[in-house]
Design brief:
With 589 residues, the chain is α+β, with helices and mostly antiparallel strands. The protein is built from 18 helices and 19 strands. The protein has a six-stranded mixed β-sheet, with helices on both faces. Strands 14-17-11-10-13-19 form a six-stranded antiparallel β-sheet, with no helix packed on it. Strand 7 and strand 8 form a beta hairpin.
Amino acid sequence: MIIRSICSSKLKKLIFPLSLSAYTHKNPIPKSFPPILENVYTQNPAKTLVPPFLFSFRNYSTPIKIQSLPVSRDGNFEESISDVVCPGCGVKMQDSDQKQPGYFIKPCVKTPNYKTPISKNPVADEPEISFSLKRGLLNEDVEHENQENVENPGKKGEKPVVCARCHSLRHYGKVKDPSVENLLPDFDFDHTVGRRLMSSSGARAVVLMVVDASDFDGSFPRKVAQLVSRTIEENSRAWKEGKSGNVPRMVLVVTKIDLLPSSLSPTRLEHWVRTRAREGGAIKLTSVHMVSAVRDWGVKNLIDDVVGLAGPRGHIWAVGAQNAGKSTLINAIGKCSGGNLSHLTEAPVPGTTLGILRVEGVLPRNAKLFDTPGLLHPHQISTRLTRDEQKLVHISKELKPRTYRIKVGHSVHIGGLMRLDVEELSVDSVYVTVWASPLIPLHMGRTENVSTMPEEHFGRQLQPPIGEGRSEELGKWLKREFHVNGNMWDSSSVDIAASGLGWFAIGLKGEAKLGVWTYDGVDVIVRNALLPNRSYDFEVAGFTVSKIVSTADRSSNKQRRDEKKRKLSDCTAEKPAKPSTVDVASNTC
């Protein structure tokens, strides 16, 4: 009777929840059932019997199939694109599936006066009734004051809505769901940015090659430098022949110079940078700038140079490796220029920017600035590390030297990631200075004892890697040989650098044969010394003093004590109890 009295639309809503609570049956369902059951229930291990009157409600019983949303890394380069992108990372935003990139939560609607300050002054403070109250002017004044507070609350405007990933990076310093990033396609620089730079027509292009000063060779974009240099040569030749040739400008920006020692000469640094850039393929540099986006060093000069090169309608592209500091640099440019710039997401996590992000309101006239996703450099050892291991490698303060004076037959470890063996020397000893994160522990000892180091100390006293057996996941431990020479004792002459980690600075007056060990695929190069200075106080043999080493020592000592107690307890339990004997002779009177 109830079913007859209810309309069909309400009946469907009433009956649909009942299908979820149907009882189960041990025997399989025969194949003679209607086709609807084959689509809905054949995936469950326990078959479900459904009342016959549910067969007609096909739309309410079929499972919902969630299709993956189309994702890309083109961002908002084209003004005609109607898709909304995240102002922090450039990914296309959507609010339908939190397992897809670009998911965001719509903020709740707030009343206009939710920020109106509340007066907490008690009424009893007034000794008597004021004249304004007697005249009836109090309500009028309060209403006028509240209206001004609502219109001008005295605080900044509403923050732009960002995706859940940017929100997690800004407030917690980590990615909320790392598996979501695997759904994004790889950033194809040649297809998205390269083809626009190679075009002989269109707006004038200015390429800002952003390089990390503390990892210059590891973060230097060689392919981009070679591509732009080749384009400059071809378009310049075409322009001289009277054809259309849009010649791009290439500006090298060395960021994070505040991490280098303040004693370093700017002239020496610029000469060293130009030499390394020329060897890396940047043979057509327009200018070089040393910048610290955190302390605003050199940002104003960079803006003036870029504005003059781009012109009124130029396009400026910020290109560089992951975690090189592109977004931080653009935020500093917007702050220095006084433009209305939405804050880009900054985090010490590689690959913070996911799509091309057009930044407006920073440069004058119609010039446009674009932030691009970081280029992946597999030869950097930091790309193989976990987030906790990257925190140890990441350099956030001014570098301090740690120097050893060692002889032939000794080795120096930088954590569990790199080792230097002194195999042959034409002199008595050599100075080895380590330039790396101060959080990474070091070890110096005899080369004959290094065979036991990976098994006994990697992942414990020597971190990163963190954890036992983690070093095997990083790859094969390989050796490279280098023959170096120097002509002075007072300063370092040669650097042996590992991409994404740091470098050994070698100081000697003679020749040396050195063996460098690291994981397969990590780029190790020899170059002229960047920082010639060394420490006045030498490190001693053994492990350096650090929190990691002390924690690992306490853990190992505790294990030894527990093992010793266990052996003593086992020996005591195995010993038979001796019967007590009484000396009769001593008890006689």
